[in-house]
Amino acid sequence: MRQVILDTETTGLSWERGCRVVEIGCVEFVERRPTGRTFHRYLNPDCDFEPGAQEVTGLTLDFLSDKPRFAEVVDEFLAFIEGAELIIHNAAFDVGFLDNELRLCGAHYGCLAHRCRVEDTLLMARKRYPGQRNSLDALCRRLGVDNAHRQLHGALLDAQLLAEVYIGLTSGQTDLGFGEVTAELAGDALPFEIDLSRPRPRVQVAAGELEAHEARLAVLRKKAGSAVWDWLAQDAADAGEALAPA
Predict the structure, then answer these.
(1) Could you count the other beta carbons within 10 Å of the beta carbon of residue 58?
(2) CB contact at 8 A, 3 and 28
(3) Which of 1, 54, 66, 151 is 20 to 30 A from 23 (CA-CA)?
(4) What 3-state DSSP class applies to 37?
(5) What are the strands of the beta sheet with 85-88, ordered from one edge?
(6) Mean pLDDT in the chain?
(7) Best CA proximity match to 74, nearest among 49, 96, 43, 48
(8) Residues forming beta bridges with residue 30, ordered by sequence position
(9) Residue 234 φ/ψ region, left for φ over 0, alpha for ψ in the -120 to 50 degree band, beta for the rest
């Protein structure tokens, strides 16, 4: 499966009021692993920033004045995302702006929905953490993603952080497709019993790998106060106590 983690920066909050995209950042994943391929462009918006928007990104019209316009990079951008699943935080915002940019380039470009499936990590986070803050920064802290270097919003940096957040949000998936058994196979299946009292197989890890793992966890705990691994380890310990004979 090919995925593209995407983020944009804009001159304001509403494309309906004439705001435009000033930066696009994309990171490519294949089978949930980064390939090293990215797409990153600053864009000349041909319009002013709304009050407050410039301070969020640190970008200026002077800096963007010699950058290409969206119409000059649209084909390259679409070639990069074509057929991929787009992973976007608050997808309605970015998709609305990008669809508007595509419209301005010509009706023949269509919209993103015609080219890609979109997964919204904000909706995923709200479902997993109802009633909590689910901004990108909040999710970085909650999932142990180091975002100390994020002083300003930047499309490529935010896409890279979102990639780590997405992996954290989906790492608990247990459905790998093994549940889809055909009727023919199901008819041939034999019943079996599981003896939970038998010792479970254990993977032996080299001492050097354990030390490197603990060092990485120590960095995450120092930056974020906790690490996702600690929660998983506690869940495993709790499960072990529940299965232990009385």
Answers:
(1) 12
(2) yes
(3) 1
(4) strand
(5) 33-42, 21-30, 2-10, 85-88, 117-120
(6) 81
(7) 43
(8) 2, 33
(9) alpha
Letter for the amino acid at 56? V
Do 87 and 95 form a contact (C-beta atoms < 8 A)? Answer: no
Residues marked as catalytic:
153
With tokens 């780590």, the residue in question is: 164
Q: What domains lie within the chain, and their CATH numbers?
A: 2-170 (3.30.420.10), 205-246 (no CATH)
Nearest to 154 by CA among 35, 33, 63: 63
Angstrom distance (rounded) from CA 4 to CA 239: 36
Residues 82, 47: Cα–Cα separation, whole Å: 28
Q: Is the pLDDT of residue 170 over 80?
A: yes
**Cα–Cα distance for residue pair 232/145, rounded to 1 Å:** 16
pLDDT band at 199 (very low <50, low <70, confident <90, very high): low
Q: Per this entry, what is the length of the chain? A: 246
Enumerate the β-bridge partners of residue 163: none
* In contact, 41 and 159? CB cutoff 8 Å: no
Q: Is the pLDDT of residue 127 over 70?
A: yes
The predicted-structure confidence for 177-195, as pLDDT tens digits, reads as follows 333 433 443 444 444 454 5
Maximum C-alpha span of the chain: 72
CA–CA separation, 4 vs 30, rounded Å? Answer: 9
